[in-house]
Write a structure and sequence with these properties.
This protein is an alpha/beta fold. It contains 13 helices and 26 strands. α1 runs parallel beside α2 and α1 packs across α7. The radius of gyration is 23 Å and the shape is elongated.
């Protein structure tokens, strides 16, 4: 069995160094060379993988050693990267930044170690020159097994790149090139990070131009060789398998998946797990569609930016009525973050206009001035919920600038290390809704019970 898995990671000393644009530009450049590519994102981010998909046309995945243990992350990579000519892994935050800000757990570094992946640091050279050699030296020496093999100099000139190259390479890393400060290498941002791919005008043309520029300033062949020289990565378990995630026999159960400008934050591993459990996900738009897809026996309302589309969502009274009626007749609903906001009686915008919405959650959601309850957590039911039982737990992540007058209290979320906890989530009837983004592979029992409830509803209607 071929277990070479050509791979490399693009990491950085800190966020904002240009990892996402460099990843997208290089993926484009690899595609122009007819390489079959896969892409991955370290950590819990769901926006950056949307850019990867925009380039490749196929879903990527998250690699997170807080959500799953190292062996599971390794097997997940092996499953999804099988057959690829090259896999590119985009790091998260600073290379060594992990859980709590004071550990390397769940850091890009830990993922690189787990996958034995060679790492190229993307260095933002704006406002710095030779001092960056000290940064690289520190990153190389901070951990003996740093896995760092090279650097790319971002936002600098060809003259400065040539001047810096000797000092960098004296440290034992290869300088794979540079990118000058340019419009092609810049993306728009907003409060949750990058603006979404579909919102950025002429993005495909921009990324094509970026790839062409990288062809002249980056050693593309050298990066390919670095990936090809990766050590073999044999499977530990023969593939990631879970007895709860085997596709059910017989007729698929149809589950509506909210998917449009307002709702688009989903972990791809979550969606794959639903498919493996016998669900067929049917996309629909709470903004544009007047009715739910026919025959759906459950609803997934994911995260996104409903706060930016309050008026459109509120004016689509037909869809709001459909969802209220579906809830009243017991349709199983999972709603996370943006989907949770949508279920409120009211959602207030930044300009303090409150719009009426679904009304399934009593109360109002409103903007705050800062991130709330930000980061990883493990959630424990205070009593049996519709899809998770007392004594079980599931891991996830929160990232939002809105809060609610009614956050729910059927679960207790605890930060890693147990230093902070809070009540969250509504778990009533067939509804599980709250701010947390759950990573379902961390406890497949939850999606399994959800799919079973959907099947039970379908069979009852039949």
């Amino acid at each position: 069995m071929d277990n070479s898995y050509p791979r490399l990671m693009l990491a950085a000393p800190r966020s904002g160094s240009g990892k996402t644009m460099m990843t997208c530009g290089l993926l484009n450049a690899f595609l122009l060379r007819k390489l079959s590519c896969r892409s991955f994102k370290c950590g819990p981010d769901y926006i950056d993988p949307m850019f990867h998909k925009y380039v490749l046309g196929i879903d990527g995945g998250n690699l997170d050693t807080y959500f799953l243990d190292k062996e599971q992350v390794r097997e997940q990579f092996l499953d999804q990267a099988r057959g690829a000519g090259i896999s590119v892994i985009e790091g998260v935050m600073g290379y060594y930044d992990g859980v709590g800000g004071d550990t390397t757990q769940a850091s890009s570094y830990e993922v690189a170690c787990t996958l034995d992946a060679p790492v190229v640091l993307v260095l933002d050279c704006k406002g710095a020159s030779l001092s960056l050699s000290a940064v690289v030296k520190g990153f190389l020496e901070y951990k003996e097994d740093s896995h760092i093999k090279g650097v790319i100099l971002n936002r600098t000139s060809s003259v400065m790149a040539e001047r810096l190259k000797p000092a960098m390479e004296e440290l034992g890393v290869h300088v794979y090139g540079y990118l000058p400060e340019c419009a092609e290498g810049t993306l728009d941002s907003r409060h949750l990070g990058l603006a979404l791919p579909g919102e950025q005008k002429d993005l495909k043309d921009q990324l094509n131009q970026l790839a062409m520029k990288l062809e002249t300033t980056i050693d593309i062949n050298g990066l390919i060789k670095l990936a090809l020289d990766s050590r073999p990565l044999p499977s530990l378990q023969g593939g990631l398998k879970n007895q709860d995630s085997q596709a059910a026999q017989g007729k698929e159960v149809l589950i509506g998946l909210a998917l449009d400008e307002a709702f688009c934050f989903y972990y791809q591993e979550n969606l794959r797990l639903f498919n493996e459990m016998g669900a067929k996900l049917i996309p629909f738009s709470p903004i544009h569609d007047k009715k739910l897809p026919p025959g759906v026996c459950g609803l997934l309302l994911g995260g996104g930016y409903p706060e930016l589309y309050c008026r459109e969502l509120s004016e689509n009274e037909s869809m709001l009525r459909e969802i209220r009626q579906a809830s009243e007749r017991g349709l199983p609903i999972l709603a996370e973050c943006g989907g949770f906001l949508y279920l409120h009686e009211q959602l207030e915008t930044k300009d303090q206009i409150a719009y009426p919405l679904a009304g399934i959650i009593k109360g109002k959601a409103y903007p705050t001035e800062r991130l709330l309850r930000f980061g990883y957590f493990e959630a424990f039911p205070n009593a049996d919920t519709p899809f998770l039982k007392k004594g079980e737990s599931i891991r996830g992540h929160e990232f939002h600038y809105w809060d609610s007058t009614n956050n729910g209290a059927c679960m207790e979320a605890k930060k890693p290390g147990g230093k902070k906890s809070w009540d969250c989530v509504h778990g009533d009837g067939n509804l599980l809704a709250g701010f947390p983004h759950f990573y379902y592979p961390s406890n497949p029992a939850l999606p399994k019970r959800f799919v079973e409830a959907c099947k039970g509803l379908r069979e009852g209607e039949e």
